[in-house]
Amino acid sequence: MGRNTRKRRTPLATKAIAASAALVLGGGGLLWAQMNASAHESNNSAQNYTKAAAATVATISCPDVGQKLTSVPDRAKQGVATELANLDKQITEAYARLASTRQAQANDANFVQNAIVGPLKEKRAATIDRIRIDVTRVGGTFDSALAQLAACTTQTANQTTAGGGNNNGGQNNNNGQNNNGNNGQATAAPSASASAPANIGGQAGNGPVAADFVDITKVAPNVLAKPQKQQSASTGSFTTRCGVNANKNHNSDNVIVAPGVTNGAHHTHDYVGNQKVNAFSTNDSLLAAPSSCQNQSDLSAYYWPVVRVQDGTQDFDQNALGGGKEGNVGKILTPQSAQIKYVGSPAAKVVAMPQFLRIITGDAKTTTNGLANANAHWSCTGFENKVQLTEQYPICPQGSNVVRTFAFQSCWDGVNVDSANHRTHVAFADPASGVCPNGFKAIPQLTMRLVYKITPPTIQNGQVKNAYAVDGFPEQLHKPSTDHDDFISVTKNNLAAKIANCINTGRKCQ
Predict the structure, then answer these.
(1) What is the per-residue DSSP string for 41-91?
(2) What is the pLDDT of residue 66?
């Protein structure tokens, strides 16, 4: 489902966009000061600048309706997925209006509420009601409380740390994520620029900012010990070699969350493994597609949001949806290496992954959802066993590269290959014991390690130059914690059983 993004620009909005563009051409990663300062304050006053920036509405925070849908009848799934994609589209468009009307906001304290947030609530209410109709007309039940999720709020520039907390380099647990949003919180990392003015930075005005980066050499070790292996542990591993997406297989779809919706992700993905993944893929088309994996029995779809460097360069999607039109700017970086490995459980033997199992790990919306489902892991080569970051990007020392890792959910409910919110059919094992929740079975845990060669960003006067960031929804401000990864298990020639057997017998296979 495409959308018309042509808009009538007012003279004031045109001037603001031109000013922002001038900063982009100047080298990237800089603040758009004129758009943040209020009309009656001097841009040359540090005190006034800080005050104006702190008061700026940085982003729009809307409750995530999809996460609250725990049961959707099969006959309603396509309609519900389309409406959920409409909710994302509405937020994206509202954020674009927020970013292009800074002068009007400075002139009218009620502008954001009256012209952006209020109309957005009306659109969301109508969309949620269509979801109700889709569910109930096929005999499903709909929680009427979901209607209360139509209203959105705004966040100022000093509220945009994921979860509304302090900037920290927190790691959640040894291999997973915060199942309840408060487990295994790690030692706080120092802010890259604690005294910097609040801002929402970036070439496109939606991040990242200086506080999103930290010198990794200044972060205290925070990696927790792994669970002790029990007698019944499955100790083997299976590595599949699928390349680094050197052939630049990209799109901004997400067939898991928004099937049948073009640009459903609103950001660009790298794809390895299955080479025919898009919004319109089906189980049958995935089985018939070619694979980039050396093992041609592995047709699984492995995809993740790209990383870009904001050094003033542009890429193929600079004027496209999912790219520059939605705040994802800069040159896309191809990983130097991409390791995909399945590992076992410290507490049990594993069962084979079911065909077409879908797993999403992490949360692309932590800036507004909070950290409950965050599963971002950022580090540097030479530091991975000591420091893992969730809420900041690392600035690596000379000779060290940026590392991005994922450890997927390793427990399966034994029945479903997906769920309405794409989460409840899988779970993380207990971080202390490695035991799966009651009713769940251990499956091979998918892990990924992506390594990038990136010129370290620099922080000067509270501003970041040559920043890098993961792609994301524009209103999420490119926070590090929004990193996430997607997977669809597709195999042939009994490969899934071979992977499980290899792991259960303690071998290292590929």
Answers:
(1) S-TT-HHHHHHHHHHSEEEEE---HHHH-----GGGHHHHHHHHHHHHHHH
(2) 95
Closest by CA position to 252, among listed 359, 356, 325 = 325
The angle that helices 118-136 and 77-100 make with each other, rounded to 10 degrees, is: 180
Has residue 360 got a pLDDT over 60? yes
pLDDT at site 31: 27
pTM higher than 0.90, yes or no? no
Taking alpha carbons only, the member of 89, 101, 104 closest to residue 4 is: 89
Is residue 364 within 8 Å of residue 482, measured between CB atoms?
Answer: yes
Q: Can you read off the two tokens belonging to residue 491?
A: 């195999």
Cα distance between residue 354 and residue 491, in whole Å: 9
Looking from the CA of 492 toward its CB, the CA atoms found within 13 Å total 14
Query: Residue 42: what pLDDT?
Result: 34
Is a pLDDT exceeding 90 seen at residue 504? yes
Q: CA 377, CA 398: separation in Å to the nearest integer?
A: 20
Residue 153 phi/psi, 5-degree rounding, is -120, 175
**What letter represents residue 86's amino acid?**
N
Query: What's residue 203's pLDDT?
Result: 85
First-residue to last-residue Cα distance in the chain = 39
Whether a cis peptide bond, with omega within 30° of 0, leads into 227 is no
Question: How many whole angstroms separate alpha carbon 312 and alpha carbon 210?
Answer: 17
Q: How far is the CA of 217 from the CAs of 94, 196, 389, 390, 451, in angstroms?
A: 39, 20, 12, 16, 18
**Confidence bin at 157 (pLDDT 50/70/90):** confident
Q: 215 pairs with which residues across the strands?
A: 395
Instruction: Compute the distance between CA of residue 407 and CA of residue 361 in angstroms, rounded to an integer.
Output: 8
Range among 38-42, 123-127, 172-176 rated most confident? 123-127
Which residues are CB-neighbours of 362 under 8 A, at least 6 positions away?
Answer: 177, 373, 374, 375, 376, 406, 482, 483, 484, 485
Instruction: Mark out the alpha helices in 26-45 (DSSP H runs).
Output: 33-36
pLDDT greater than 70 at residue 397 = yes
- 99 is written with which tokens? 């970013």
Secondary structure of residue 477 in the 3-state scheme: coil
Residue-averaged pLDDT of the chain? 85
The pLDDT of residue 185 is 31
Q: Name the DSSP class of 247.
A: T
- Which of 470, 482, 469 lies closest to 29 in space, CA to CA? 469
Task: Of 7-21, 122-136, 276-290, give the lowest mean pLDDT range.
Answer: 7-21
346 phi/psi in degrees, rounded to 5: -75, -5
The yes-or-no verdict on residue 324 having pLDDT over 50 is: yes
Q: How far apart are CA 146 and CA 427, in angstroms?
A: 24
